[in-house]
Amino acid sequence: MSSDTGRDAASSHTANSHTSGSHTDSGDMVSVDSHLAEILATIRPLPPVMLGLAEAEGGVLAEDVTAGTPLPSFDNSAMDGYAVRAQDIEGASEAAPVTLPVTAEIAAGDTGSYQVTPGSCVRIMTGALLPPGADAVVQVEWTDGGTSRAQFRRPVAPGDAIRRRGDDVAKGDVLVTAGTWVGSVQLALLAADGVGSALVRPRPRVAVISTGNELAEPGTPIIPGRIWDSNSFMLAAAARQAGAVADRHRISDDPAGVLAAIEDQLPRADLLVTSGGVSMGGEHDVVKAALAGLGTVTFRKVAMQPGMPQGFGVVGAQRTPIFTLPGNPVSAFVSFELFVRPALRALQGLHTERTSPARPLLTGAVRSPLGRRSFLRGVLDAEEGSVTPLTGQASHQLAALAHANALIVVPEQVVAMDAGDPAEVVRLP
Ligand code: AMP
Ligand code: MG
Predict the structure, then answer these.
(1) Whole-angstrom Cα distance, residue 23 to residue 25?
(2) CATH number of 381's domain
(3) Substitution site in 4, 213, 227, 252 for ligand 1 pocket (most atoms within 8 Å of beta carbon)
């Protein structure tokens, strides 16, 4: 029987005994911190691969990328207007405009050769190559916009409205440093400098396998006794939000089938996550039954609530990390946040710091079992510096989880906290 069905720990009771020095039931449990430490000691960062720019998105750069070309790579116009010699329109004003002949028009991308000769100007568009002879650009709004002759109503200084070669990036500058997660802007900078591929630790590939005879696909009919599989959607989505590529699979409670499914995914996955089948002592603990024989996965009780039954280890020739998470949805989610997310980051060589240093004040009382660290669903108001425990804290109660933006952490030796007490929180993404 699973003992992971957390009681409703958010309570309106006023509990006065905040800690208990009496007996603890954590004797055969390992702490959250040591379980995580073992996981992180096992995870090796993925080997870097050279990927085309589009595929490198979401990867973590494995080496500094330096600029082979200055940016901009040539002097060009910052405005639509006219390339001029500043001295030619020195005295221009509204009352006494200066008129110059327009000898050419240069659009962005035009690679022809043009020249601004003394006493003339060239119509120029934003991003177009600055023609020799010009030392400034006058924006079109300060002129009459003429095509054969243009009238200038203001003077400009040399250099005005010109983007100089190298004013953004000098040749040899580090564009993006090793260890940087490649997001939209990093991609843009690499692309802007003509970099077509990058050496990255790629997005980890995650296979999520839900187990349970009771599970059916959402969108199909069920009869009482059956439920729709929610964990595989949740865990695959959480993995993607954590930067992985993830897919979901659902199998029934058959140890041989579980093993076959895991073996099937091994060539395609950098990390495996199962849900269900690991509760304490049931004969239906198929994941445990399937993996116990391998001897490379450890099943244990972790001193936490929800999510006490945990399994972690490696499988296959590549020693692929596998997390066997409990089936209760809230337990599975909390386990993902605490253990799988840091592991995914470690696969990309990144470090994780999740608890926020600020300690918001509880707006209501909470309770927690002695000897276990509780992660209660709450709504954090960072501006107010408060966190409100939600109603519905049992480990099957997904609705409160869906309303939460933080987990309220109640330490192992604390059994009750009151409104007004400062609490540690883990922010949810
Ligand atoms: P187990 O860990 O397999 O004993 O499952 C514990 C509880 O979680 C049971 O109520 C299961 O029905 C439920 N559960 C297991 N897997 C899923 C899933 N994929 N989606 C939703 N609930 C699940
Ligand atoms: Mg099950």
Answers:
(1) 7
(2) 2.40.340.10
(3) 227
